[in-house]
């Protein structure tokens, strides 16, 4: 059995930084077990922070949302890409400078709180365009941003998440809206603030001072890559966007330190595994046969995943080409969402 050295994963870290959507809650409902997990951390006096690319809520609103779910949270524990973008613009431009905001009211409020002036039209001569997710963003907003950027405004994106989680599955995120402008302008944003850039995680770790930091996320392309860029350990939980096929295909820059089905992995050594392990792990073996991967053995599905990661990361393989050699392997693949 592949277990984390020591007793519990969480005992090796001073600070645990959580992503929110897909880890703590899905839209506005807590993910099963999340409230209890954070409660255990608080009860043990463990430092906790929340880093989110969601720019549609202010830090205080996120803290209120968490508290309403049963997770006591203070605004200073919440790091949003909206607040980080506003701070960046505050440091670059004089007080009162006009900034064209494409996004939710929360992003406008952060710009205002930073001492800048949020505007909605390019003819108001904005010095910058800040673009974040907002459910009401429309073509007219993108058109104003396009005109302003072509006129020389600095283009800041709060994040470039392609999708965001929902109860109906992944939906277009801010990255999809950024892509529309990128295509129209034939250029990249001047600055991307949120994950996978390291700023949010680095800020959280700096606030915690001495000690090790663990980042917990559900997305390889933001949470895990951002943690790696910040030089921090990470735990991928399979409760949100990234699934097992994506994990098996992950490039080195997006590979987590640990993987668990959910937040129980923080406390239960049997519910978490370090990756990559060995192709022969915990009673499982994964070997290349006829151009694909063959899994055989018995044991925890999580250990089977460790073996599959080791084999797939040494030489890429399509998840569709992973085959069970035994009934136990077939059940493990089904548990991992890899059954045909």
TrEMBL record:
Keyword annotations of the record: Hydrolase
Coiled coil residues, start to end: none
Descriptive protein name: HAD superfamily hydrolase (TIGR01450 family)/HAD superfamily hydrolase (TIGR01549 family)
What Pfam families has UniProt attached to this entry?
GNAT_like, Hydrolase_6, Hydrolase_like
To which species is this protein native? Micromonospora palomenae
Q: Which GO terms describe its cellular component?
A: cytoplasm
Question: Quick check: keyword Ribonucleoprotein in the entry?
Answer: no
Q: Where is the GCN5-related N-acetyltransferase-like domain?
A: 282-338
Q: GO MF annotations for this entry?
A: phosphatase activity
InterPro entries on file: GNAT-like, HAD-like_sf, HAD-SF_hydro_IA, HAD-SF_hydro_IIA, HAD_sf
């Amino acid at each position: 059995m592949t277990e984390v050295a020591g007793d519990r994963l969480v005992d090796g870290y001073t600070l645990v930084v959580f992503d929110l959507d897909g880890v703590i809650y899905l839209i506005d409902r807590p993910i099963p077990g999340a409230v209890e997990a954070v409660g255990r951390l608080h009860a043990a006096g463990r430092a906790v922070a929340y880093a989110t690319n969601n720019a549609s809520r202010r830090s205080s609103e996120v803290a209120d949302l968490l508290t309403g779910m049963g997770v006591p949270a203070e605004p200073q524990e919440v790091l949003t890409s909206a607040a980080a973008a506003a701070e960046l613009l505050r440091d670059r431009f004089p007080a009162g400078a006009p900034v064209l905001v494409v996004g939710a009211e929360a992003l406008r409020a952060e710009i205002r709180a930073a001492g800048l002036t949020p505007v909605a039209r390019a003819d108001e001569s904005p010095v910058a365009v800040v673009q974040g997710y907002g459910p009401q963003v429309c073509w007219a907003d993108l058109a104003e941003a396009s005109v302003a950027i072509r006129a020389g405004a600095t283009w800041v994106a709060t994040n470039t998440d392609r999708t965001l989680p929902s109860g109906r599955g992944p939906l277009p995120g801010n990255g999809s809206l950024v892509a529309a402008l990128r295509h129209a302008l034939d250029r990249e944003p001047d600055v991307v603030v949120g994950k996978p850039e390291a700023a949010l995680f680095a800020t959280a770790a700096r606030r915690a001072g001495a000690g090790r930091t663990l980042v917990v996320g559900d997305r390889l392309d933001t949470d895990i890559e951002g943690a790696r860029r910040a030089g921090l350990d990470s735990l991928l939980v399979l409760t949100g966007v990234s699934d097992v096929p994506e994990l098996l295909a992950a490039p080195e820059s997006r590979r987590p330190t640990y993987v668990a089905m959910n937040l129980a992995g923080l406390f239960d050594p049997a519910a978490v595994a370090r990756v990559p392990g060995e192709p022969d792990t915990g009673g499982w073996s994964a070997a290349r046969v006829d151009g694909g991967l063959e899994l055989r053995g018995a044991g925890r599905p999580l250990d089977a995943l460790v073996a599959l990661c080791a084999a797939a990361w040494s030489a890429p393989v399509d998840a569709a080409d992973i085959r069970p050699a035994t009934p136990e392997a077939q059940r493990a693949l089904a548990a991992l969402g890899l059954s045909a």
